[in-house]
Fold this protein.
Amino acid sequence: MNYSGRKVVYDWPGYNSGHANLNIVHCLIYMRLSCDLVMSPFSFPDTLSLGEKIPLTLTIANVGKKMSDTCTVSLYMSSNSYFNKSDDLLKSIAVPEIAESDSIVFEVNVTIPNSLPSKKWAIGALVDANNDITEISEANNLSYSIFVLKGYPELYRFVPSPDAEIFTPRPEISARFKDGYFGIVSDSVRLYLDGQEITESSEIQATKIIYTPATDLSQGSHVVKVEVQNSLGYKTMKEWQFQIVTTAVDGNNNIIGKREYALSQNYPNPFNSSTQFQYQINEPGWIRINIYSVEGKLIKTLVNEYKTAGTYHCRWNGKDNSNSSIASGIYFYKINSKNYSKTCRMIYLK
């Protein structure tokens, strides 16, 4: 049919112009004489160690109807099974053309990185990782295998948050730790404040160490260090600092000069590569800062964690939660806490 076809009547789906309405439209898209690369399953030991070299046999078959073009197969390491380019790239291999109904085998060695925590990991082999060729299906391009890594214990959720400004002279100082597979050696947990060990004055729980100063801390910067070790003998250490910005109290023991909640306008605005803004919270709590499109769609979660009272800085690089660049336009950033919510508008220009 064409626009000058004889006795042809055109209509829009869902629009009644007096002719038969199109309530359902079926669209079938298919390809002929296209290649279709398949990554065959592979396996390795259930448990691996840091720095270990493992041999892999990778088989790639072309089950399509046409010879494939050259491409690459990339080996990624991920803490989940949703592989993308934000995961650790272990190795890339050039794949030559593969004829119809033919296959190719690669023998490769992969080295496990030396600085990862103990947990379940997955190594995935993704053929045509850069989407260079057109295939009948891309759903069969990935194979992966899961293993437990003999790695380091994890330290996380530091209080006060690194580089925070604190408005109380006796803040809680704490950190969480875990190793779900090889356990934490309980008497290995150590906590230091300004170079002095305070472990004996701290409370050590199953997954947390907590210290509350008995006297006021001095105004200015303070350095915290925490250490833990798992049953494998691997030790993790984290050092961070925070700042006491006021220690003055009134007659009712209330902090003088305590700041309120606030969210500043981003700068620069408009921006074309990255932008930053400042926010303040006046009490400890869970803080969320999200980026939204004008349609209200969630684009990026910048902050989603427990924060102590203080002033913080936040930066956004114009990418979404999948680490993909977003389009130019108007966006909104919103802070939410138990007692505060505010939204600001910004403009992104590529």
